[in-house]
Amino acid sequence: MEVCADSVLSSVNAEKGGAIRIELCSNLAEGGTTPSAGLLKVVKSRLKIPVYVMLRPRGGDFFYSDDEFEVIMEDLKLLKNLGADGFVFGYLNSNGTLDKDRCKEVLDAIRPLPATFHRAIDTTVDIMSALEEVIKIGFTRVLTSGGCSTALEGLPSISEMICKAKGRIIVMPGGGINEINISRILQQSKAREFHCSARTSRPSLMQFQKAGIPMGTALFPPEYSTKVTEVAKVEHFISLSNNCFMDME
């Protein structure tokens, strides 16, 4: 189980619950963006499991300007020096195909560290062709919901991707995985890794709470509660997944 986390507490809870790896990012409400250097430094000081870092300068699509790509490369240098164990990224051309040149440039810069191609693959014009290119470029794994909004909806495509990969890359389902659907996703896809947040809402510790002043924009998130990865949820996910793996064997 890989856990996507956007705070020190969530990262620590993920390790306590048994996660094998953290995908560290900011702004999970936008699907995850590059975390701060400070967040990585503190998380690395608390954890023993590997911490992979998201390289995504903003939310939205995965077609980046030259300025945005320059930011990506500067973040990469800084975060690699701070001890990132791997990186998570994915860049596309405007026509929905892989930006192979930029992906190769980033891979060259992070070597010998491993890399995951993230759910940018789900927005490509042809996910199976994109998978083949991701393999050839040299990624270690690919995170995918099978080209759909959730891994459950994309289950047929995820199964096809795992079959097509033939062990050349780890295909890791992610996107909307929960306690209800994890068994079905793992059993039908035969995936050996999966990705989720295992989060729950936790009330703010603020004693004085002034309502009606949102700090967000369109989403208007609640100001006096936060989403935090929960130890018990991680443990429950791992128990469910282990049962699935034993059944498959």
Describe what this molecule looks like in 3D.
Strand 4 (86-89), helix 4 (100-110) and strand 5 form a beta-alpha-beta unit. 38% of the residues lie in helices and 16% in strands. It is globular, with a radius of gyration of 18 Å. The protein is an alpha/beta fold and 249 residues long. Helix 7 packs parallel to helix 8 (231-248). Keywords: Copper, Cytoplasm, Metal-binding, Nucleus. It is found in: Cytoplasm; Nucleus. Pfam families: CutC. This is Copper homeostasis protein cutC homolog.
Give the full name of the CATH homologous superfamily.
Copper homeostasis (CutC) domain
State the order of secondary-structure elements, H for helix, E for strand: EHEHEHEHEHEHEHEEEH
Individual helix count:
8
Secondary structure: number of strands: 10
CATH topology: TIM Barrel
User: What spatial form do the alpha-carbon principal axes imply?
Assistant: globular
CATH architecture verdict: Alpha-Beta Barrel
Largest sheet composition: 8 strands, parallel
